[in-house]
Amino acid sequence: MKTKKTSGVFARPVQLVLCAGAALLLSTSAAFGQAVSQPAATTSGTDVVQMQKFDVTGSRIHRVDTETVSPVIQMSQASIEAKGFTTFGDAIRSLSINTGQALTPVDAGTSFTPGISTFNFRGLGNNSTLVLINGRRAAVYPIPGFDGLQSMFDLNGIPLAAIESVEILKDGGSAIYGSDAVAGVLNIKLRKDYQGSQASVGYGTFFNTGTPIKQASIIAGAASGKASIFVAANWTDQGYIMANDLSYTRDADFTSVAHKASPRYAVTGKGKVGDAINAINDAFGFPALSTNPAADGDFDNRSGTGFPGYIYDDNGDGPWTFYTPTNNPTLAGAQNDQNLYNFNSRAGFLSSNRNYAFFTRASYDFNDYVSAALEAGLTRSEGTSASAPTPVVLQNEQGLSQGSPMYIPADNPYNPWGADIYQGGRRLVETPDRYTTAVSDVPRMLLTLNGKFPENVSVLKDWTWEVGALYMANNVSVTTPGTVPDYRMQQALLGLVPDSTGKLQWVPDAPASSRTYFNWFGLNSQTMADFLSISNPQVAKNQLTSYDFHLGGPVAHLPGGDLAVSIGAEHYTQSISFTQTDLNITGNIIGGSNGGSWAGSRSVDAVYAEVDAPIVKWAELQVAGRYESYSDDGFQKRVRPKIGVKFHPLDWLIIRGSYSQAYQAPDLAYLNETEIVTFTPGQYHDPAYPAQPPAQMQMNVTGDPNLQPQTTDVYFAGIFIEPHKGVLKGLNASLDYFRYNQKNLLAQLTDYYTFNTILNGAMKAGSTPASDPNYDLYQLFQSMVVRGAPSGPGDPGQLLYINNPYQNIQKRTQVGYDADVSYTWATKRAGQFTAQLQGTYFVSDRIDGSTNLGNALFRRFRGNLGVNWKYRDWNVNLNCVYIRGTDDYQDYGAVSDYTGDPNDDAYGDLLVRYHIADQYVLNAIVTYSGFWGMDISLGVTNILNQRPPVDPSGSTGSFSFVDGVNYALPASWILQISKKF
């Protein structure tokens, strides 16, 4: 853990905030007695209506126009519902600015964060967008996701019934809001002023599955005199879907659908594909290749660890197995083969989720100048994910004690080889499917005191101020019944003894004749399964506390309006802890889940200022800066600036641009994680042993306290048009250019190099001269590939794991465009029509000079088309999400690595290229409001019930598509009824 120190910006930030607030209260209170009410100004007997100023994300200065210097996407609750998705997370992920891979409740069975729902703006990372709730920083999910290190916000923790609107700042927000606002800011605004009450219920299901979707909510608000209160509560319950429920997820062998992606062999050099394949076929020990990648089994993602199990005998011969389970294995019956296992036959597809949320806000006006508000909320999310029974691989596990190898003893009666067996694999089909349940509790409390200065305080006339104190947490408990400890597996192989109740137990000195042994090649009893399986709880906590103060208002009058400033200070502290069991810490769990407990915290002190200068009526300038001091040692202290301009030369035209610097500190897990063990989503050949079947590879990651923050220069420029008359009245259109220049990018080499490239490069490290341009890279790859002790001369040793740390190693430049066009036209007889088209196109995305576009995870274009029709009591919405396809490839590495002939380098790398098709997700929702004052809505998501496009590499791991990039769920419908009282 990094050494903590006291920040120098504020010695006592809490006292500073309280004293500043008290000073303001005293100053305003002293002036209250002198305040005199003035009548509203009139002109020719008509009252002048003064427009109410409000907040827009991207600026802390109150304003009256919605089109600011910065580009902001504004979504009301109605527009979120109009997208036709049943969850808030799916609605946010459908935006065209969301690209790259996000985490969803699909295929979450063996993930670090089962059931979590995230987003990935610009593909810059799930942790690169700052999430605010009512303008203040929100607590992230305490268990890091993806590789076990990335902290991110869980959209499940939002009380849906309380949402009023969502605003998304698309350019960098670090100068205004602080660290993590690299790709922008997602500000979730909860309801404040609501009077009346409304109740809503909903029920639906996913087509052809019977999986229910249930929803209910109630909101109520009232005001009396100086006080007001708002209360919201909602409940959602969505069941799980098993992979076997859907035609496109039942089989992990994607060969039958691979033709939809048109796979073909290719080589990166100048050689011919046929010659390269022949060269490999002539090499010793590698399976022969045909001209059809699918026929060669490239897209068969079934597990090599199947049932019955396989072993390698003491001479390394094999794999030996039996085609059918047997209680009498013999050498004569053993086959030199391996049983592939379709784990999708018992795997989960969509996690179940049950969500309870409560939110309330109460406010009180002490007088015309001082108000107080209290927000309190609690959300509980319960998600359960399923995965297939545990696979056990002898050479990857421990025996009776830490560091000892697991083996099948020679005297096990189901071991016909009569020798200890140390290599082999088997699927524990007798044990329960692995169900992981994560319960997340998210309490939040915000206390604010705000006000304005009296009119007779001329220096601060029209100025406002606010003091706030926030507490928010996210506490998660995870239980995993079906966990099998290494030592129990070893005990079962050595033989167990039944107790008086028939339960099996480990008795080390029991005679062999009284023991019941685990059968590696047959089906074992339920009592054996009961002995093996335990529950393994884990607990994670994240606490965020913050104190802030800001004030602002006009300081001078310019030709274009008031020159306004906003200044403020903030102190926040974040602490995360992840507590694992001794089994995790010692790596004593079958199939992984290794990792130690860890904890980390940081505090940040910040001061910031913003100036908004309407120089003339058609030109506005925004200048902002934020200075932050971190408790982390070695982090650079400097002001992060932002400058933006907006030109309004015509009443229908706005031209704007901005430059800002964003700053992202390493996530606490990056610095403090003791060890995380993960496995590759796909299976890979080890080039050191080409005759062995492909298998998943273990990856080990540890935190590095010496990591430094990454910095980003953000450039934005755009135009906005809104004609106010003529045939184009009702048109809104914008086109924005964006560019992100990132330095010190926090990344893993496996994000940008394939596992085949790393494995093959490591093999070349020993024979590559220092003069070779790839020498340093191969040496780096060699340090990542960790092998066991060699068995003899020429043997490199079995692959143990890939060391895959985070490093400050990359530079990244991303360039693209956002477009948004909408048109509304009203007719006298047919009602009102609105159409909106949004799209994001990436011109380039390069990391250290190599393109990061045009693959399964990073698509070049995404778009949205929405159509709305309102007629009397009817409201109809159609929404289509478009995700562009791409060509992608699997890299087998250099042909010379397989043939052993350096002259074969002329061929380059052998690839399998394939195409991922475009995807269209069409949703519809129809609402009728003419029955007893109720709103009755029927929505259908994915109307055409289209499956996600085939990605034969199975980038998700279990399925032949990329979840979190493409939409993976089947069609669903939901009927909702709501009524205001």
If you had to describe this structure to a student in words, what would you say it looks like?
The protein is mainly beta and 981 residues long. Helix 11 crosses helix 12. The protein has 13 helices and 46 strands. The strands form 8 sheets. The protein has a 22-stranded antiparallel β-barrel. Strands 3-6-7-4-5 form a 5-stranded mixed β-sheet. 10% of the residues lie in helices and 41% in strands. The N terminus is likely disordered. A hairpin with a 2-residue loop joins strand 9 and strand 10.
Arithmetic mean of pLDDT: 87
Calculate Rg over CA atoms: 31 Å
Largest sheet features: 22 strands, antiparallel, barrel
Low-confidence stretches: 1-51
Distance between the termini: 55 Å
Q: What structural class should be given to the helix and strand makeup?
A: mainly beta
Q: State the helix count.
A: 13
What's the count of strands?
Answer: 46
Gross morphology is globular
* Percent strand: 35-45%
Helix percent band: 10-25%
Salient structural properties:
globular; five-stranded mixed β-sheet; single chain; 10% helix; 13 helices; 22-stranded antiparallel barrel; 981 residues; disordered N terminus; mainly beta; 46 strands
